[in-house]
Amino acid sequence: MTPVAALAAIPDCPVDAAPAERHDADDRQPMRALFRKAAQGGHTGAQVAYARMLLFGLGGAPERRQALGWLQRAEAAGNCVAGYWLAWLALGSVLLPRDGRINQRMLAAVHHGHPPALRAAAVHMGRKRDPADQRLCVHLLERAATGGDLLSALLLAERLERGEGCEPRPMAAAAWRTRLVDAGAPVLPVIDAPPPAPRPARGPCSRGTLAFEEALVPPPLQWLSEHPRLAQIDGLLTSDECRLLVAHALLDGHGDALHPAWRVQPASEDFALRVLQLRLARAARSELAHAEPLQVECRRPGPIGAAHHDYLPPDRLVADHVLAGNRHRTLLACLAAADDGGGESFPLAGLRTRPATGAAVVFDDLLHGGGHETASLHAALPVCRGALWQATLWLREGRYRRA
To answer: I need a surface site. Which of 138, 142, 259, 353 has the fewest CB within 10 A?
Structure first.
């Protein structure tokens, strides 16, 4: 990819509403036909919506190559949202190459005022240490939140309250939280991750640039064990990234103690979520195309599950993308550490991990020469006080995703 250094002077401009993510099952098939008719008539917005239905199999079987063609047609007619989804596809490096057009397309969508693009750019800028980039992060979140993006408003309120990228503005934060409560949005837990350590990137990543290839550079591993191969990664995720994942889980209604697990569904996976999963996959020395959908869970004081292995038994493997092979690696990222407790126990290795917000552990489920790594047996340690938010990414031996 080639970074695009043109974010510093983003003008305010009209914002297009994002198309609906979900429809009742009975509505999808006739809706797909209606979008196809409008797309064939040359309506670029309908072309994007129809392409997404083809891409995610809404209202019929997935037809990914056709989806790609409709997005390219809409982009050629000047639709920047089509470019946003082409950038989304290119991150996976399956239907499109992962190249510099990702940055260019995202920049066009940001200038157009597309809220998911503004949010993704804000989270990207929030990883940089330069004060100007931090201010730009707040500006982008304000633009997206003003355009009605709840996720951006949740991230913005946290930054305004804490003075991240700006002077503390508690009254402005309170005003945004009032609007969020009125809209039925959740209250985020306190999340404060240390800033990521500066790391070399492929190509220039100077102030005010969009350079999503930064997510491709794997951070250093601190090895804790050889059997199983277990390593720790400090400072992997920023506060914004942790908050984003927790906010997604809470907005989907999976943040309570009875049903804590939430998995990213393809049709709701925006660019920010996708680049975040790419970052986690690369941190685990794997690829996004090999990753199962990311899972987010909240653990509170109470009973814990039994020790288990993450590799799949034959019956589960046959039922879930058997050609992708088994789970060969697991990454556990801490999104919000509990006040006391949490972490993982590896009883056969005599090891325990201690969660830290923004950090992760990664371990092998299979042996390097083949076969199950029985020493990867692990169990969640009890949370004694507070709540632990954790994201889990399972990596397969081969390609799991089709886009």
So the answer is: 259
Q: How many beta carbons lie within 10 A of that of residue 295, not counting itself? A: 15
Dist CA 217 CA 4 (whole Å): 18
> Domain ends where: 88, 112, 136?
112
* Same structural domain, 232 and 381: yes
End-of-domain residue from the set 51, 82, 112: 112
Give, in degrees to the nearest 5, the angle at Cα 348 between 342 and 351: 40
User: Taking a C-beta distance cutoff of 8 angstroms, is the pair 402, 62 a contact?
Assistant: yes
Q: Is the peptide bond before 228 cis (omega within 30 degrees of 0)?
A: yes
Classify strands 340-341 and 383-385 as parallel, antiparallel or unpaired: antiparallel
DSSP state at residue 299? E
SS3 content of the chain, % helix, strand, coil (to 5): 40, 15, 45
The answer as to whether 171 is a domain residue is no
Q: What is the pLDDT of residues 142-186, one digit of tens each?
A: 999 999 999 999 999 999 999 999 999 999 999 999 999 999 999
* 299 domain residue, yes or no: yes
Parent domain of 391: 218-396
| CATH classification at residue 291 | 2.60.120.620
Give the chain's domain count. Answer: 2
Mean pLDDT, residues 78-91 taken together: 98
Query: Using CA atoms, how far apart are residues 137 and 156, in angstroms rounded to an integer?
Result: 9
pLDDT in tens, 275-294: 999 999 999 999 999 999 99
Both 269 and 389 in one domain: the answer is yes
Alpha-carbon distance of 37 to 98, in angstroms, equals: 31
Q: What is the pLDDT of residue 29?
A: 86
